[in-house]
Design a protein that fits this description.
This protein has about 300 residues and is mainly α. It has 13 helices and no strands. It has two domains: about 60 residues; about 220 residues, no CATH class.
């Protein structure tokens, strides 16, 4: 009879425990505690202490948890952001990417929408986030290293986006169309913009509910809607043409939807693609160095050295 070895408590376990408890303390102390905070924090703590079988999930899942917490706490540090860009970005977009008649593409589409495009673009705008989670879960089940890389890439692209939101806060096109290009109205509530037509068509309130919880109206630059699917396309690019075509077409659809639904300028979309590229290169570079370091530290006896 063999005894069962005790679970190995790793540094990652303690890190996840510290972060989970710290976040619960933060949201409680700031009066923002919600049921979903408790569920998500309890989940990361449970995974951290569940044993070696879930340690592999924790290596990527912790990055997803950190991303959620980073986005959830945006409202606490918005006081750090610089001057909000409204009319200057509106004019720069018109000069660089003019639509027919010399207007802007978001402005042009705002009066030329169709039910078919509303349905297609609304679906893309709803599914862009789920693509990340489904791919991460798929690669986790397959025991593929892309699981961890996708998760950490997702964290990095969001961290870069949030930093830019603080350094260069920018009003989305729907805001300028509604309030004008003058000084920013900090009391302006979030708006689902073109996605409201998708809700109305299906008789739901998905986007209305989603955007009602937004704490940052002036976070249009870069477009993380465009960044996520492009990041996924880069990660799966080496897996063959089927992966490239499907993920690439979806990335193009989301990028178009961002402009069509008046949520972003073309400039926002291009910035999102750039941020995704930087995040991808950063994660792949770190992963390559970690892989090379592991290979060089393999014991000599596993390389065929039989010396005593």
């Amino acid at each position: 009879m063999t005894s069962r070895s005790p679970n190995k408590v790793t540094a990652l376990t303690w890190l996840a425990t510290f972060l989970g408890l710290s976040h619960l303390t933060l949201v409680f102390a700031t009066g923002r505690l919600r049921w979903d905070h408790v569920v998500v924090d309890a989940l990361i703590l449970g995974v951290a202490w569940a044993g070696p079988r879930l340690q592999r999930f924790l290596r990527g899942g912790l990055a997803l948890w950190l991303t959620g917490m980073l986005l959830d706490t945006q409202g606490l540090w918005l006081f750090l952001r610089g001057p909000i860009h409204t009319g200057d970005l509106w004019e720069l977009e018109r000069q660089l990417f003019p639509a027919p008649g010399g207007t802007h593409w978001p402005d042009w589409w705002a009066t030329r929408f169709t039910p078919a495009l509303d349905l297609l673009c609304g679906f893309a705008y709803a599914a862009y986030l789920y693509e990340v989670f489904l791919l991460a879960l798929f690669f986790y089940v397959k025991k593929d290293s892309l699981f961890e890389r996708v998760c950490w890439g997702f964290l990095v692209v969001n961290a870069l986006g949030i930093i830019i939101y603080v350094v260069y806060p920018a009003a989305p096109p729907w805001y300028v169309l509604q309030y004008g290009p003058g000084p920013a109205d900090l009391a302006a509530p979030p708006n689902p913009a073109g996605t409201a037509r998708f809700d109305a068509m299906l008789g739901i309130s998905y986007f209305a509910s989603f955007y009602s919880r937004s704490t940052n109206v002036f976070g249009a630059m870069p477009s993380l809607h465009a960044a996520y699917p492009f990041l996924m396309t880069m990660f799966v690019w080496s897996r063959g043409w089927a992966w490239r075509v499907v993920s690439g077409l979806f990335a193009l659809l989301v990028a178009f939807s961002a402009v069509y639904l008046t949520h972003h300028y073309v400039l926002d979309v291009l910035a999102g693609l750039g941020v995704a590229a930087v995040a991808y290169l950063a994660v792949e570079s770190v992963y390559a160095r970690m892989t090379a370091s592991t290979q060089w530290t393999v014991p000599l006896t596993t390389r065929g050295d039989t010396r005593a």
